[in-house]
Every structure is written in C-alpha cells, then in structure tokens.
Amino acid sequence: MNILVVNAGSSSLKYQLIDTTTDVVSAKGICERIGMDGSLIEHKQIAKGLKTKELSPMKDHADAMKMVVKYLTDAEYGCIKDMNEIQAIGHRVVHGGAFFSGSILMTEDVLEKLELCREFAPLHTVAHLMGIRGCLEIMPEKPQVLVFDTAFHQTMAPEAYIYALPYEYYEKYGIRRYGMHGTSHRYVSGEMAKLLDKPVEDTKIVTCHIGNGSSITAVKGGKVVDTSMGFTPLAGVEMGTRCGDIDPAIVPYIMDKENLSGAQINDIMNKKSGFLGITGVSSDSRDVEDAIAAGPENPNYEKALLAVNILKHQIKKYIGSYAAVMNGLDAVVFTAGIGENSIMLREMVCEDLEFFGIELDKDANKLAFRRSEATKISKDGSRVSVYVIPTNEELVIARDTAAIVSAL
Ligand code: ADP
User: Fold this and answer.
1) Which of 184, 265, 339, 347 is buried deepest, with most CB atoms within 10 A?
2) Residue of 241, 285, 312 best suited for mutating to test ligand 1, as the one with most atoms within 8 Å of CB
C-alpha cells in the first residue's frame, strides 16, 4: 500500500511516500516557509536519485499539499502517475493528551478531541490541524490516520503518571506525565524485542532516544511502564537547550532573584539551558564533542566535558531506576541523532555498569555510526544486550495507517 506520511509544523510540512508492502520510501521532501515570503519545496525522488527545489508561494498548508502532489506526480521527479496510487495519508501528531492510546482514523469527532489537545502543545497541534485540513481540502476522499507521539505511553500506571501535586490539578487541568517520542520508543523497542530470544511479554527494555530532545523509556512486555518526559518535553535528561529534571523550587527562586516572569523562566529552561546553557557555546552535541576532542588547552573543554558528563550521569540513573521498576533488564537501546552516532556518549554511559550485567564491546561500539541497521554493541557474554537501532517513525506511521485503512 502506498502511504503518504505527513509531518506538519507551523511553517513547514515534511512528507514521505512509503510502500508498506516493501517498506521502500519512493520520495520525500519538505515545504518550508509556508505562509511567509520565500516559501519553497525541496523534493527527492529516491529511486532515480533526483533532487530538486522550487520557490513557489504557499499561503497555507493546502497550498503546500498541492506542491507535494505536483512533485509526487511529476513526469521527471515524481514516482506515481496520479493520486489514485496513494491509498491513504498518515499524520504525525505530537500530543494526543489522554484521549488517544493508539493511532486512529480521522473523523470530525477525532478532530474535535484533537482541538482539545491544543492546551498541551499549542503550536504543534495548530500546525497538525492545518496539515490535516490542507489534505482534506486537496484530497477530501482520501482516508487520513493520526499517529500520536504520546499514544505508546498511555499504558503507564497512575503511580507513574500522576504527580504528587494536589490531585485536583490532574482532574481540572489534565496535569500528568504524558511522555513524548512514543512512536520512536515503540519502533526501537519492537525491533529490540524481536532480537531477544524470548516472548515479547517477558522482555524488559530501556530505550534511550537521545537527540536534540531526549527521552528514556522503560518498556516491559511491550508496554511502557515509565518514561522520562512528563507533562511537557522539558522533563527528563539534559538536552540540547532544555534543562531536563531540576528541583522545582529552583524556578520561583530564580524568578525572584532575576526578576523574571513565568514566560521568561520557561524560555530559559527550554531554549537557553542544557548543552547550550552549560557550555555557553552550542546545543549541538557534535560541537560539544569537538570541544572535548580539542583537549584541555581548549577554553571550552571543561564545560563541554561537564555537559556530556551530566548527560551520562543522568542516563545511567534512568537505566538503573527503570531496571528497578521493571525488576530486571534484558536490553538497552540507543537511538536518535546522538544515540545513533555518538560513540563517546554510549561508551561513557555503558562504562562501569558491569555489576548490572552491561558489558560494552568497545570495538563494535566504534563501528556503530551512521548505520541503517540494528547493531549490537555489547559483548557476546553480556547479560544485558546493548544495541544501536536507527529509529524510523515514518515507517511506523505508514504501517499504522495501512493497517487501519485495510480494515475499513
Ligand atoms: P531532533 O530531536 O531534532 O529530531 P536528532 O535526533 O536529529 O534531533 O538529533 C540531533 C542531535 O544529534 C544533535 O545534537 C546532533 O549534533 C547529534 N548528532 C548527529 N550526528 C552526530 C554525530 N555524528 N555525532 C554526535 N552527535 C551527532
């Protein structure tokens, strides 16, 4: 089945055309600066290895979808004759609140519930709604399926998702742990479970999605029992520009000392903290690693090392606590930009965890870089398997969409 996967942002729209019978991506691209001057599309036809770019006004997401259709059906850059060759559209949706515990066919009722999720992720939800409505305008007959980043985490028990605040805040405002990157955690934990020599129900896996945004999840028997992101994607480990878990009393303390508003401190915790806040140089782990590689003479060396040491320390703590929560551990998976590529961070995290049953194969770890397949990086005798598994959220979205549409 040919599925068009759409990831709509406020001024961008990414797309991939995936054949779910072969898992092959035939085309992909991005529309940028939607609703602004200088909107453009960048399109790739994978089989022919062709790339193109066109500046073209796109006032909204419907205009962007028209451009996508134009390129998908283009005689030179396209890969289908007409839109009848696409069976359905699958949308990435960042926040489904507590309404959605799985992927779902888009209906008016579903859209009404999605409107209510605006409270939790205003910018993303508005963008998704524009993307969905843009598709509806261009292809009203085409089934659309919504795949939520939060859905996989809906299996958590109340003790994992309720904060010890007055309970009425949960009831009145829906304040609870939701978790993020669920589609990625679901994909890599599923791939990992297949590699373990036991039934899925018996597996205990910690998945570390470490990128610009990072989250760590405990997956027991194929179901999430805990995850590091919380009510928002600010919680958990140190990230590119986000602080992760801190003592909550620090927030009013700094607001008072620096005379900041709630919006200002929120901005600092989301955009000026993490790797960027510690190093003062960059949010990008490649820059941070380069500063460490340059050695102690480099003026940024100490802070760069501190930034990575903080992340290492926190990931270790999550792995340890999640093993306790699951009463065991079969595998640890690293994924996303840093998890898939940072040889240094993986080595630092896995060091000194032998008592825990984690024995890293340093040579295998060095080879696990920009790989497209799952790569084992633990020693053969290691009680806990450690793998690098490249994430593929688009494939999950395409597969869910195909499954829901086939059952119609
Ligand atoms: P996002 O959360 O934006 O999807 P990604 O998963 O793409 O983020 O991860 C981005 C991060 O991955 C950046 O910090 C980037 O530096 C890092 N990264 C990408 N390639 C490498 C690499 N070769 N070595 C270390 N870090 C890398």
Assistant:
1) 339
2) 285
Per-residue pLDDT tens digits for 35-79: 999 999 999 999 999 999 999 999 999 999 999 999 999 999 999
Tell me the C-alpha distance between 112 and 284, whole Å. Answer: 38
Name the region of 336 (left: φ>0; alpha: ψ -120 to 50; beta: rest).
left
Write phi, then psi, for 290 (nearest 5 degrees).
-65, -40
Distance 342 CA to ligand 1 centre (A): 8
Q: What is the pTM of this model?
A: 0.95
pLDDT tens, residue by residue, 217-236: 999 999 999 999 999 999 99
Q: Which of 149, 226, 330, 400 is catalytic?
A: 149
- What is the C-alpha to C-alpha distance for residues 198 and 329, in angstroms, rounded to an integer? 13
Q: Distance between CA atoms of 15 and 71, rounded to whole angstroms?
A: 11
Is the Cβ–Cβ distance between 309 and 303 less than 8 Å?
no
Query: Is the CB of residue 213 below 6 angstroms from any atom belonging to ligand 1?
Result: yes
97, 100, 104, 110 alpha-carbon torsion, rounded to 10°: -60
Amino acid at 147: V
CA angle 275, 278, 283 (to 5 degrees): 25
Among 188, 286, 349, 388, name the best residue to mutate to test ligand 1's pocket (greatest count of ligand atoms within 8 A of Cβ). 286
